[in-house]
């Protein structure tokens, strides 16, 4: 997939207002992106998160501090696939402001887990794919339908920001279950962006490398960045109507090389 990919149709002016919905409502990367977008344009926020998450109170406080004009929480454990339709419907329609369109949806939930246990314990393999792939695609499809309905009803076109990973671009032995699970969601959102382009609903696929967040506590890697750096890149990518953004930017030329390395060389690289 080209890092220079842009949307096939010209950009439509983004709506003047509207709400922001964050699936993965406690995610460090998701919250940083939401903060950056609220800084430009304050509005109401809906956090979709596990109600028992100990991180929820702080997430809510961060949104208020960033300029959210109201914060509500929709409870969802994304492994409960049968609950998706109701949760997305609830998230996309704020009963306190039924006329308020949704401007931005961020999909930022995910699990990393232990890379070796992830393939040696089939229950963990399934759990990784349920969250990172099946739930992401299911929620993505439901969100797309809600944004299309908003558009058909005369409302503005919204946009979807899907947090994937550079690990999705070429699956590596060192974390192949995670990489494969993100590859599935990445391909889904790339295709969804192409399918929704005629309706001016934009999809931005974000591919960070290693980000210092709750997910990676205790781990180290090269080219590490903070969530704020991802957020800044997302804002710039939205401004320039990109379909894909890698963070840091050096991953665009690096992945162009790495994607095309023969297997016998790629498998010898120690990362
Ligand atoms: N950190 C990195 O190096 C990195 C790099 C590339 C891509 N990413 C991707 O970035 C996204 C955000 O990760 P992050 O770095 O911001 O880590 P994070 O702060 O740990 O965020 C992970 C989020 O996923 C949620 N989640 C996990 N399982 C869930 C479930 N069953 N139901 C509902 N929510 C669930 C967590 O909610 P709880 O509070 O309930 O646990 C949390 O909100 C993920 O998709 C990840 O794959 C991360």
UniProtKB/TrEMBL annotation:
CDD domains in the record: SDR_c (cd05233)
Gene3D superfamilies from the UniProt entry: NAD(P)-binding Rossmann-like Domain
Pfam family, one: adh_short
InterPro entries, A to Z: NAD(P)-bd_dom_sf, Sc_DH/Rdtase_CS, SDR_fam
Native source species: Propionibacterium freudenreichii subsp. shermanii (strain ATCC 9614 / DSM 4902 / CIP 103027 / NCIMB 8099 / CIRM-BIA1)
Record-stated family: Belongs to the short-chain dehydrogenases/reductases (SDR) family.
Protein name: Dehydrogenase
Region (Disordered): 1-21
Keywords: NADP, Oxidoreductase
Keyword 4Fe-4S attached: no
């Amino acid at each position: 997939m080209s890092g220079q990919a842009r949307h096939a149709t010209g950009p439509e002016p983004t709506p003047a207002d509207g709400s922001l919905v964050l699936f993965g409502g406690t995610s460090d990367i998701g919250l940083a992106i939401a903060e950056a977008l609220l800084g430009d344009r304050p509005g109401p926020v809906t956090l979709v998160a596990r109600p028992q998450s100990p991180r929820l109170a702080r997430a809510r406080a961060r949104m208020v501090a960033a300029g959210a004009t109201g914060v509500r929480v929709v409870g969802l454990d994304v492994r409960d696939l049968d609950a998706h339709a109701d949760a997305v419907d609830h998230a996309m329609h704020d009963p306190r402001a039924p006329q308020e369109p949704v401007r931005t949806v961020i999909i930022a939930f995910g699990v990393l887990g232990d890379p070796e246990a992830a393939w040696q314990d089939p229950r963990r393999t399934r759990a990784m794919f349920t969250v990172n792939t099946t739930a992401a695609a299911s929620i993505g499809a439901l969100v797309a339908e809600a944004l299309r309905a908003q558009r058909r009803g005369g409302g503005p076109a919204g946009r979807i920001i899907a947090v994937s990973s550079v690990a999705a671009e070429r699956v590596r032995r060192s974390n192949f279950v995670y990489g494969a699970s993100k590859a599935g969601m990445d391909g889904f959102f790339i295709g969804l962006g192409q399918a929704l382009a005629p309706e001016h609903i934009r999809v931005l696929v974000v591919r960070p490398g290693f980000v210092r967040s709750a997910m990676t506590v205790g781990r180290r890697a090269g080219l590490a960045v903070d969530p704020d750096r991802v957020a800044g890149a997302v804002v710039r990518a939205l401004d320039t109507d990109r379909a894909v953004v890698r963070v840091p930017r050096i991953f665009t030329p690096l992945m162009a090389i790495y994607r095309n390395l023969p297997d016998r060389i790629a498998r010898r690289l120690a990362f």
